[in-house]
Amino acid sequence: NLQWGLPWWGQDHYILLCVGNVVLHGIFNLGVENVASRILGLPETEARVAFHELVDTLVSFDTTYMSPQRQPMQSNDELAEGYRLALALLSIGTDFYMEQDPAHPEFKQLVTPSRKIMGDNPDALYYFVPISPSFDYIIRGARAGEVYLSLTVYGGLAQGGFASSVDADLNFKNITFAEDGTFEVFISTKPRPADNFRSNWMQMSNSAASIVTRHCFEHPLSAAVDPSVRVNVSISLAESHAPPSSPLADSEVASRLRAVKHFVDAHSTGMPPQDPTKAPGWFSMQLNTIGKPAVWASDKQDGGMGAVDIAYAAGYFRLERGEVLLMRGRLPSCVFGNVVLWNRLLQTFDYRSRQISLNRKQMKSLNGDMFGEFKIALSAADPQLSDVDRLDAGDRKGGIIFWRFVLPEGEMFAPTTKLVPAEVPLEQWIWPDAPPREG
After folding, report:
1. Residue range 160-206, pLDDT digits in tens
2. Distance of CA 291 to the CA centre of its chain
3. Cα separation of 148 and 170, whole Å?
4. Which of 333, 350, 402, 339 is nearest to 375 (CA)?
């Protein structure tokens, strides 16, 4: 009997075997619990139960999220990157939900060159803080050389869960700054305060869960690897300070562990399987092409923790040995623009030792025109052409090309692409036609 590809003993026996394995697994776990409780003297605390739930979530990450059905990886090396993602999620979840308290808020850096999730960007610094609608907050700061600064309040369905909505968004163009360049933003569920001191206000909903600040830089050296780049932003309760924190009770540790669990799950196994028919229009599902740029919208199918000021354009690429993907286009009028290479898990390639991203200050093909025409070669080997920029794919065969245009104006066009076979010498490269000019 080969129905469903099953062994000779048949479908019914196979189902019974699976059920039996589940039962045996449960009995084994009960045995472990019994030994731990009676022999080792470990009590059945709330925190211990929550910790086991977190461990189970990590196991599910391996067996479900990293399964061939969810992640059709192209090589064992790419599959192995998934386990780096698991540890990054655990690290970030621990920082934000185990060691943070909405009553004692503190901005912490979301991603770093060695801790990446959700589509990081070498030319930007992101800061995150969990919040509660039970409190009012004040954010204080000053611009520190960013070409773009924004604050976004996200709503969430559960502590540690995925952002489900945008409550409020405020960028530098709509922030009132003091004469010395500083600013304050009041955040509350209640109506806007009447005093002039708090002229900047963001209203959060009763499901408000977190705040993300975005700081985009266009420097010859990407901000994420430039030790001289620092941002100036802090957060505190608005009216009064909460009492000093006490040692965490068993129930509180359990609650925080479950928030970490929810965070890991929401950004992996808990995400719906990829459905190409529901991809946002700006993401091309045709290999080696880029979708037409469009501004992110939380009420559509765009997903994730995007920003309402930013237009995105993206697509998958795949290169065989020696092949080169040529990309040509015109940058729209915007305050920031760059292109980044990600793996299929939405993590940038290593940008500490390779040029895997380009902002406008790094694009020599623009010849100083921030809204001009660019030519980029995505390749493993450097073509060393004076009028062509290069994205370094290294030994990778595939990934995602991702464009960002912040506060764009006018019509935007998708970059055009052309795959050059390995045997074609660079002097015979034929570039794709450039997209039309606006209007």
Report:
1. 776 778 999 999 999 999 999 999 999 999 887 666 556 799 999 99
2. 19
3. 11
4. 339
